[in-house]
Amino acid sequence: MWIVLCAFIGLPLLLVAYFELGSLRRKQMLNKFQGPSMLPLVGNAHQMGNTPTDILNRFFGWWHEYEKDNFRYWIGFYSNIMVTSPKYMEFILSSQTLISKSDVYDLTHSWLGLGLLTSTGSKWHKHRKMITPAFHFNILQDFHDVMNENSSKFIDKLKNVADGDNIFDFQEEAHYLTLDVICDTAMGVSINAMENRSSSVVQAFKDITYMIKMRAFNPWKRNEFLFRFAPEYPAYRRTLKTLQDFTNEIIAKRIEARNAGAESISQEDEFSRKKMAFLDTLLSSTVDGCPLTSQELYEEVSTFMFEGHDTTTSGVGFAVYLLSRHQDEQKKLFGEQCEVMGDLGIGRDATFQEISQMKYLNLFIKEAQRLYPSVPFIGRFTDKDYIIDGDLVPKGTTLNLGLLMLGYNDRVFKDPHKFRPDRFDLEKPGPFEYVPFSAGPRNCIGQKFALLEIKTMVSKIIRNFKVLPALDELVSKDGCVSTTLGLPPAEKKKRDAQIHKYDPVLSAAMTLKSENGLHLRMTPRL
Ligand code: HEM
To answer: How far is CA 356 from the centre of its chain?
Structure first.
């Protein structure tokens, strides 16, 4: 009896003492940083709130309190620094050694393994070098055909829901489009998600992304061991299996087709296209003289599927939402479309060159990514001590880089809540003051692909539809965006009280999403 009682009380005490000792050095060093005061054991966890939106608001609240500079906070024994100073950004993003990702990325491991996004050390260096040619200009041009083809299908589908009166969730529609594009470009196959929304594979891609984000904000489900007891776990395992089987089958078929030689493949065969998919580049590549293993192929292809569709969904989604709210900018964009594409250009595909001539569209997308970056935070983990901008940052610290906060810094962007695409022509942010695609050696390898895709889709939407908000009253009267993110707390409170149910509420999921969806109406132009 006494032994059981001692174990019952003693074991937790031992554990606490173990973690307390383990974090002592970090505590001493990080005390020099500004940040909220914390409680024993929980740190600042009790202040974070329960929903992703609460967490986002808490971060912005602290960011204001600490004069839009870095601050430290603790979640239990986990030490974190929210990084928003350009000097820190520069040091971290330029470093060739500070490249290990924070533990939130572990949530992707069971699906992605250690692909380009999550790997570190020499594996990352070698794979990054090997994968870079997959985004060569010529390949991107081939991918542009896929983007054009799918966005034409999308426009046709949209015409069924967008009749001028119907209020619909654009984000939901765009998701299937970007999934079709990434599937075709990454694996060279079409899953036709726009037509087959309820297919198990299409749903699996949707569900897995949701589950990764949901777990990121739930302290219990985030833990691999505890998640096994969660009610969602069986469905999660099934989803994973669906994706693993699907991707592995595609890879196996592609290898078989390559081995058999192109001649023996019939015209109807899904692999008969001449276009190089990302998977083909991987199959032709070697690392240290050896071809990639099946596991490595799986990891890299899955990484592209993950990184390449949710990010562009919110990229296109928020750009189109901003069109609805800022009608003058929409008119200006339509004018540019007519100028670049000519009078008969409404219905046809824009070429690669024409897209690059759409200068105002480029500024528009830049401004949209400033306000609603598709990747709002990225994380690094210090596996040794670092001196950053004169501060000693101890080993074992999580660095959360607030890419989102950068866009709301009024020291860099004048009137940050005003939607002004041409600010990027007038105010030039420093190289580490605006980095929606990150920067340095670990920046987004798909940046050119993503921008091409977003511009191709938005350009086609502008030419085919007039985009309207769910209700006319949601058109911006003062040029301000609807988000209250980054406003000083008192002003935020006032504006939050006026938020309409159709205004998108942003959450701090790994990819910024609107909790309400993006409600719009569209009127076909022809
Ligand atoms: C609007 C769209 C996109 C945005 C804003 C974006 C942003 C980012 C950011 C911020 C990172 C750095 C992540 C980190 O350091 O943890 C990143 C990495 C990455 N992105 Fe993107 N991304 C977008 C679209 C894409 C697309 C379309 C692809 C693939 C076709 C892609 C593939 C990748 C990969 C593989 C990495 C990891 C690179 C590495 O660690 O070497 N991204 N992206």
So the answer is: 23
Long-range contacts formed by 247-254: CB under 8 A, 24+ apart: 247/187, 247/298, 247/301, 247/302, 247/305, 248/294, 248/298, 250/187, 250/188, 250/189, 250/279, 250/301, 251/187, 251/279, 251/294, 251/297, 251/298, 251/301, 252/294, 254/187, 254/188, 254/279, 254/280, 254/283
pLDDT of residue 5: 67
Encode 341-351: b = buried (16+ Cβ within 10 Å), e = exposed.
Answer: beeebbeebbe
449: Cβ below 6 Å to ligand 1?
yes
pTM for this prediction: 0.94
Residue nearest to atom 26 of ligand 1 (CA): 308
Q: Which atom of ligand 1 is nearest to the CA of 441?
A: 41
Q: State whether the beta carbon of 310 lies less than 6 angstroms from ligand 1.
A: no
- CA–centroid distance, 512 to ligand 1, in Å, is 14
Q: Is the CB of 374 under 6 A from ligand 1?
A: yes
Query: Using one digit for the tens of pLDDT, what is the confidence trace for 398-438?
Result: 999 999 999 999 999 999 999 999 999 988 899 999 999 99
Atom of ligand 1 nearest to the CA of 135: 30
Query: What span, in angstroms and rounded, lies between the C-alpha atoms of 202 and 519?
Result: 23
Read off the pLDDT of residues 89-115 as tens digits, 9 standing for 90 and up. 999 999 999 999 999 999 999 999 999
- H or E segment and range at residue 291: strand 290-291
Low-confidence ranges of the chain (pLDDT < 50): 263-273
